Amino acid sequence: MSHKPLPGFRDFYPDQFAERAHIFDTWRRIVRRYAFQEYDGPPLEPLELYTQKSGDEIVTQLYNFVDKGERPVAMRPEMTPTFARMVGARAQALRKPVRWFSLPQLFRYERTQKGRLREHFQLNVDIVGEADVMTDAELVSVAIEIMRAFGLTHTDVRARVSDRRLLNGLLEHLAIAEPTWPAVYAVLDKLERQPREVSAEKLAEAGIAGDTAEVILGFTSLDFATVQARYGDAPAVKPHLDRFAQYLAHCDALGVGAWMRFDLTIVRGLAYYTGIVFELFDNVGEFRAICGGGRYDNLLKSLGGTDLPALGFGMGDVVIGELLRSRGLLQVSATPPAYWVAQSPDAPDAPAAALRTASALRSAECIVEYALKSQKLDKQLEAGRKAGAGAFVIVDPSSADAPWRIRRAGHDDQTFFTLEALTAWASSHSGTPA
Ligand code: HAM
């Protein structure tokens, strides 16, 4: 029997769990500041929830099986279909806009590599019920604010942003027929990662003439001002440019303008997106996407629910963890005890006095540990040092006036207390030794 978990799955030993907790705490702290409320759904869903609505890539990566009741089911590979199903089921009753977040563990059977595992935790932040572009700006600003909270700046990370409606308008303006758009999307999605000739070949296969193909291949280098200057008068494009300009202005006002980069190659692999889409990347280009999302206005309706506009993003714990670690911004470890309680085993009231002391300190919300057996005092203190205790409480009720001695780790001076004074002092120091 191997001691290793399955490929692409992780054990979280306490120090790694502390890193995960830091990431989760930061996510929760920021999204709550934006008035999002937490929800969750089942980790196992009917298979058809994904086969119809997610992108092909995710569907080929499903962990699926037939359960004992003959139902085809799948472990959730993403949260959006569950979210859409849950909101759809109560669409009438919910206050709009719905602003919800979740921290699900997701499962995708993909080739494991740097930044890609077979399970990951993913912060999902979604808004339903508002079509205004102010909502798109609100959404991306949450993702960016999270980067700030982790200690990153716009020189570390950028949000690459596009709009599927704008892209469709451009393709229409270039006289490319709608059935060909998915092929163009697929090429744009891979433009950075595959050789230019391969992209050109794929466009030719899709029946796109050489000149037009060149224009599409040139989309990589276009900034927003250039697109405005070049296509601003095209009726199929103009309304989408105007909306996008408004979006950028709102992002500026929300204080995240410096992080934004217009980028027509961001199309997102998932099938349901309909509007503004974005992904966050590190500026060095060292890691995969930190986060991705966008507007998916038709998903709720197509899952048989009410016709409501929606948008959201997912941010995994793996890539952000790698990025923070590489920048020295994830220096957390498991929490050591604040107090280590010790008592000489020869004392007449040992170990009861030590146990009463630990109990009193825990009631004062302190993190307390002690040796779980009778031991020489030296051994107990040595165990406390190994545990990384912040302070030692040495119990000696035979000393009449102040039978509780406190010594901070790494210090020689001691303070003497009664038990009442000790717990009062510990409470006033918010559970940690000063
Ligand atoms: P996604 O682009 O598939 O979107 O995933 C979002 C993020 O989750 C990625 O940018 C990446 O950080 C992380 N991620 C995805 N797959 C893996 C993996 N195998 N290992 C580690 N991390 C991974 C979605 O899932 C959409 N449902 C997001 C969304 C929410 N859109 C609207 N609302």
Automatic annotation (TrEMBL):
Pfam families with a match to the protein in the record: tRNA-synt_His (PF13393)
Superkingdom of this protein's organism: Bacteria
Membrane-spanning parts: none
EC number: 6.1.1.21
Domain Aminoacyl-transfer RNA synthetases class-II family profile residues, every copy: 1-336
Keywords: Aminoacyl-tRNA synthetase, Ligase
Biological process annotations from GO: histidyl-tRNA aminoacylation
GO MF term list: ATP binding; histidine-tRNA ligase activity
InterPro entries given in the database record: aa-tRNA-synth_II, aa-tRNA-synth_II/BPL/LPL, His-tRNA-ligase, HisRS-like_core, HisRS/HisZ
Cellular component annotations (GO), alphabetically ordered: cytoplasm
SUPFAM superfamilies membership: Class II aaRS ABD-related, Class II aaRS and biotin synthetases
Record keyword Aminoacyl-tRNA synthetase present: yes
Binding site for L-histidine: 78-80, 108, 122, 126, 268, 272-273
Gene3D superfamilies: Bira Bifunctional Protein, Domain 2
Assembly information from the UniProt record: Homodimer.
Family membership noted in the UniProt record: Belongs to the class-II aminoacyl-tRNA synthetase family.
Protein name stated in the entry: Histidine--tRNA ligase
Annotated organism of origin: Gemmatimonas aurantiaca (strain DSM 14586 / JCM 11422 / NBRC 100505 / T-27)
